Amino acid sequence: MAHRERTDRHGRLHAEHREVEGIRVVTLRGEIDHDVQDVLSGALLTEGGTLPPRIVADLTDVTFMDSSGINVFVATHRQVSSAGGWVRIAGAQPSVLRVLQLVGIDTVIACHPTTEQALHPDL
User: Where residue 56 falls among pLDDT bands split at 50, 70, 90?
Assistant: First the structure.
């Protein structure tokens, strides 16, 4: 069952979310920087304002991410992990993946080539 919600701020970041097998899949498009970190944080939350236990962030169409986005992902990872859940990143473009690797986020948050692989890493 999929539920979609769109969030857009200044045309720079578009977020859409759906649920797949109890996992919140957040598809992001655009740039993630200081100006849109609240949009990113909000997109990762459920409608009740809580963090779901399992999140896949699809970054296939994210063209830029700075430390603000990394900080949001780290904070989300910490909160979800403390409740026994997880966050996974999917489809990061080479430039975004390089940023994740440079700061070591890929060693803390699993990064997968596709959303399908992030949803089912054992397949």
Answer: very high
